[in-house]
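Just wondering, does anyone understand what follows?

——
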Amino acid sequence: MAEKREIQEFKIDWQFPDKMETHFVNNFIVQHQPGTFYISAHHILPPLPTELTGQAISDSVPAVGKVRLAMDQNTIERLMRALQTNLDTYKASMASDESFVKLSE
């Protein structure tokens, strides 16, 4: 007969090192394979106008990779819920903030 295992819960002690880097990213690639999802975050700068650089604008811009995250299905589902909850809270707080200027979409 299989022995029942007791589920033990642990408190998470969130630690943020003083030298933990923060990267601004504005472009993502999401990929998956069986059992694993990957999110690659990149930063893309728009090309500067020719009149500022004196050079012709290229037909491509570099997307500089900043971080690649790998997670299982349960973790990415939790991330998606956390992001949606946080975005909803943010939008609600901005809607009630009179100093917030809503930009047209």
